[in-house]
Amino acid sequence: MARSDMTQEEAIRHTARLLLAAHYATALTGAGISVESGIPPFRGPGGLWTKYGEPPMNGYERFLENPKRAWEERLSPTGPGAILRETVAAAVPNPGHYACVALEEMGLLQCLTTQNIDNLHRRAGSRKLAEIHGNATLVRCIRCTLRVPLDDISLEILPPPCPNPTCQGILKIDTVAFGEPIPPDVLEQCRQAAERSDCMLVAGTSATVYPAAWFPLQVRENGGTLIEVNLYESELTSLCAVSLRGKSGELLPQIVNAAQELRSAQAT
Ligand code: APR
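Above: inputs. Below: predicted complex with adenosine-5-diphosphoribose.
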């Protein structure tokens, strides 16, 4: 944790106080919040990129060059993509995801930006959600940006045509490929949330991939407060008012409990 004079319990209570005092608290989550759901992270111990190497940075260019080949590669049963798909398909939300829902329902989270494509925040019940890297259960037309569930379309023809009769576009998985621009609608949603945020809870991310990694820096630049929940130190640790070291599935519920206790103490 960023302040060595605090015990973990005191740091959790301090975190709850910061969230309760914030006017517009937001959150940024990454792969680490889904590790306890069985989905490997990308970097650090057990990371997919640690094991297989970072993927090529021109994934989107390769898709545009040959969408059929890109779809066939996507559906192949081997490699890091297959591991990610299989673990995502088997995963269920963990207490960390549900803690984010509880913070939203307490009115303490105005927007949750997630870099995860695993749909677990949605399944847990988060509503004020921005999936900046897309959602693996959806496909998106690269021309009209229509999004539909992957399960609702046929994969007989690759690439699948856009179901919008007035559009001649093609569909790709909604997850943002390396080199692909973040869809403007969700980028604007994240940008506005970060702009308004005076406190950001950053959980389970190495904070190394932009533009998502830029948002906590923007909050800090605007004089806001950063709180980190991570197993290890990250690029952000030194900028955080509090950096809780541990598993998000354990720490986030403790933050919720501390906020509930503080709120009821304030009410009496
Ligand atoms: N609890 C909390 N933090 C954890 C846990 C856990 N149980 N397990 C791992 N972590 C932390 C790691 O210490 C690391 O800082 O989660 C972070 C995961 O970092 P990455 O694997 O880099 O994932 P992320 O930050 O989401 O990556 C961003 O990179 O490759 C792209 O598109 C991909 O969205 C991803 C983006």
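Residues 26 and 200 are 5 Å apart (CA to CA).
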